[in-house]
């Protein structure tokens, strides 16, 4: 069963440009590590401090394998360091979703 990881980010609204750089970096890193990246989504209208990312996997086991690859990936580690140093992410939540299918 396919699962989609929805990451909800709460951002420092004064550092959205830094988060957007961070998100752009993931556009190449995530697929290279095995995630099926649906996309990163920035605030446009309304709330200015919430961003989302959607990444699909064949299973939760595939997600765990992806996380293991991500931890040893140089570009991924550099992007995590960028987020820690710049502190543009105030919090993040992960929710795992499954598609709704006909009966």
Explain how this protein is built.
The protein is α+β, with helices and mostly antiparallel strands and 103 residues long. The protein has one domain (7-97): Alpha-Beta Plaits (2-Layer Sandwich). The chain is built from 3 helices and 4 strands. It has helices at residues 16-32, 60-72, 74-86; strands spanning 3-11, 36-41, 50-57, 89-97. Helix 1 packs antiparallel against helix 3 (74-86). The radius of gyration is 14 Å and the shape is globular.
Q: Any descriptors?
A:
42% helix; 103 residues; alpha+beta; Alpha-Beta Plaits; 3 helices; single chain
Cα distance spanning the termini? 15 Å
Number of strands: 4
Helix count from the secondary structure assignment: 3
The biggest beta sheet reads: 4 strands, antiparallel
Helix content: 40-55%
Here the CATH topology equals Alpha-Beta Plaits
The main sheet orders its strands as 2-3-1-4
Shape type:
globular
Stretches where pLDDT falls below 50 for ≥5 residues? none
Arithmetic mean pLDDT: 96
Protein topology:
Blueprint: E1 3-11, H1 16-32, E2 36-41, E3 50-57, H2 60-72, H3 74-86, E4 89-97
Antiparallel strand pairs: 1-3, 1-4, 2-3
Helix pairs in contact: 1-3
């Amino acid at each position: 069963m396919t699962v989609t990881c929805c990451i909800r980010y709460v951002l420092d609204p004064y550092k959205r440009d830094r988060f957007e750089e961070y998100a752009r970096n993931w556009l190449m890193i995530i697929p290279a590590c095995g995630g099926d990246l649906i996309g990163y989504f920035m605030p446009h209208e309304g709330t200015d401090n919430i961003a989302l990312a959607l990444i699909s996997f064949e299973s939760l086991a595939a997600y765990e394998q992806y996380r293991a690859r991500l931890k040893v990936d140089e570009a991924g580690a550099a992007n995590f360091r960028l987020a820690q140093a710049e502190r543009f992410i105030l919090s993040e939540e992960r929710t795992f979703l499954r598609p709704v299918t006909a009966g």
